[in-house]
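Problem 3 from the worked examples.
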Amino acid sequence: MVSGKVSKLNLWELVVAIILGLVEGLTEFAPVSSTGHMIIVDDILLKSKELFSPEVANTFKVCIQLGSILAVVIVMKDRFIDLLGLSRETDEEGNRLKLTQVIVGLLPAGVLGFLFEDYIDEYLFSVNTVIIALVAGAILLLVADWFRPARPKVETVDQITYKQAIGIGLFQCLSLWPGFSRSGSTISGGVLLGLSHRAASDFTFIMAVPIMLGASTISLIKNWDSFTLDALPFFIAGFVSAFIFALLSIRFFLKLINKIKLVPFAIYRIVLAVILYLIVS
């Protein structure tokens, strides 16, 4: 299947779709870099671009992100209802996260991503740059845990200030470097700015929805010609797989993050970088 269209799918192609959905769902929201995992699992091991055209394979990777987005919306549905002004509930102190705070957090990376998209695509999407980003991101995770305030100033995301929101948004700019990890940069930034690990994770996941939805929509529009009805089973299998595993991983991560903090993820990233280096060297 080397053309831009996909013909009748066989069982292996559906297995590839499910595996890639699993990788996307498990790694998209943890601070471990979904890009690094996709390079190892797909570009090196499964090689979906040899099963399909590069256009179809790339469009598929965008499509399965929508499954991960849906998982976040379901897990945090009450929070999004609040942000849209459809609930009047407040916490015990009368606070509630505001939509404007989320927008403030999104602006820095949104502006830089728009200005430097072509440069990032041309110069930063390589195995070597991803390996460096994995290590650099691991260092940031370690710094966040070692130099965080002794006691968090913000225990829940409802207590976040506009200053902290813009600060986390600036840290998120690091995630424009493929392999650095959006979750890793924003959670680390939040922790350094005085948020608890859980509050930083909640804010990160909330910001992820408009970011990923916007990026996925733009990419799908650009590559719409690669999407055909023949490809539908492949796309559906990956979407459902990403949704299910993202749903499980998000719930697990949010329960675990305040207990294990960030050091284990930093160690994992360094190990992943070494494995990736050994594979490609």
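Problem 4, a separate protein:
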Amino acid sequence: MRFADSVRAGLIILFSSVSFAAVADVVVSGAYVREPVPGRAMSAAFMTLTNNGSEEKVLVSANAPWADSIEIHTHMNDNGVMRMRQLQSLTIPAGESVTLQPGGLHLMLFGLQLPLEESLPLTLCFEGDECNDVQASLRSMHSMNGMHGMHGMH
């Protein structure tokens, strides 16, 4: 191997590990997509994002090959009426976790390609063009409790 080739290979390994380390700071657990309401091509995704790094991470987008678009949403109380509101980003403070759950923060999924598979690839992208690929499981609405399973009715 020529010297230039070994330097190039070393740089590729160095930059690959630097990029991976930054993305690896955010650990995603419990990712799932709620089964859509029959006749509707929309749903929501939930998970816990844990930032094990020393700097905050900011989720700016999500995408999936099985959804036309994905938005970051929250619920807010507007004079006694719960309403969804789109967020442009979601900050995960250093050393903390943020949980996306029914009735709170979530990813709103639009234009679903039905039927959905049991395991769904999902890409979460953070500021600085760092992305994290995760697998979300599909959960039946029947397994969800109370009104939380009715989110797709909005």
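Solution to problem 4. Residues 26-145 form a domain with the Immunoglobulin-like fold (CATH 2.60.40.1890). The first strand starts at residue 26 and ends at 34.
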